[in-house]
Amino acid sequence: MATAAQPSAPAGPLVLLLSCPKCGAPFTVDDAAATHGCDHCGSLLLLSAPDRDEIYFADDQLRSPEAVLETAIRYRIEAQRSEIQGTSRAEDGNPLPELWVQMRLEAFEKDLRREARLLEAHRVYVPYWHLTGWIVQGLLGRRSNGPKIVRLRAFAVEHSVPAYDTERANLRDRGLRLSRARVRPLTVREVQERTAFLPWAPVAERSYREIDRWRGQDLDPGLEPVARHASFLDRRRVLVYRPYWLARVALLDDDEHWVLADGGFGTLAGHPDAPESRALIALAAGDPLRSGEPSFRRVHVVASRCPECGFEKALPAGNHVTVCSNCHRALTPTPDGPRVMAYGHCVRGQESLDGEYLPFWRYRFRIEMAGAPAAERLEDYGRALFPQGLPPGFRPAGEHLWVPAFRLLGTEAGDEAFKDLVEWVHAAGLRAVEEKIPIGGRPVTWGASLSEPEARELLPFILMGLHGTPSAARLNTLLLQRAVSRARLTPSAPELMMVPFDAGGDALGIAGTTVRVPNLLLTGGPELDAQRATVHRARVILSAP
Prior knowledge:
- It is built from 14 helices and 25 strands.
- It has 545 residues and is α+β, with helices and mostly antiparallel strands.
- Strands 1, 2, 5, 6, 7, 8, 9, 10 and 11 form a nine-stranded mixed β-sheet that branches.
């Protein structure tokens, strides 16, 4: 069967089109968002996933049979252009003038449009699993034959796989990606109106093979790797129905044939024969919701007023935990309203009530390694790694592992800031106070935009992030496997701690150190999104000559 290559969508999260339950205004969020502020009525909206798989449908660029016929005509015209250019030459062997080619093409198009007919057209919705997450790599390697270093890198992954029975249907969709596609919740009404849906099946284990392949690849072009520890983290999936059209068209000379049009991209995907087309149309009679109930991201209106002091706008969108700027209580949004949660704060030197505080998730831990006693303090872990003596400057201490609770990983600058923070915080000897930030000053508190389950997944990479250049020089593949990949790490329940930083123009930092967190990494926005690292972008960079 003739097929057409599927275009790739631009890199980025899936875009969900939802609506505010208070005012009805539509809004868009990416599939990783937990909260959102309505631009129309100002309500704080909490997004929660249902207990079963979420089901959406994608926008259709070919919204009528006439649009499908127009697409078939356009492709036939382009094919004729190639034929004219390939078979016609001037007497000297050179290509004919473009003006002459265009005149021939215009005459062909006039005849084609006069005779082209659409005999029948059927829109069919086809299911795909859209898988997202991060490939996080802890890398031990060298830059240009220099000393060994440890780097932490994170690359976004977006992968789409068929959710239909590929033995019974072929949609010519190899390599299809749905990233940045706009999708809407599939409701009972939409099912009744659109009717033709291919049945979907649970995602098979083989669907993750493409993602697993990325874990072992060299994605950092600036590093010659010696060893790595890699995981696929924060994995999510949604079911997306994409529109296709099967149409029987007659173009020139009553040349009847079937075309398969991709409604999402507005392109022709192939030319199936009549039996295949009829079988595909007959197969599209499934009930995608099955139970008859909608299955998509729930949207709850959450009061943004602090339940402790009544302060308005205490819960900005985008955070899993926010410290109220009035009473300094920590608040987390729930469908029933903001909930107060316990947290502590740290002191560096003399306590400042007007500092800038960044959140960290903190865990007690137990690490079990082969050939060493179980460690519940970082000093013991360090001695188990280097029994012959600690490397210069390697001084992690304490009974906690700390994970920055704000999103840093995912850009090169953010990855470097994350690594610097991890190395610093575990050797800083911070004095922890198991109470909220005292009343009396005007502290700037940044919210926890990284959820606790996401932070817990990063704990093995925190162990790698402890190492600076002197200790990295003494690491090797076997030691890395023993201390990280094969070690058994058991964390305690989480604690949220606010850590004071020094303001310095366009970044927060720690005086007397190289630790620096640019404000752009905290505020985000399009400029930071443009720097987002993905496995697909890394592949392009690595394959460039």
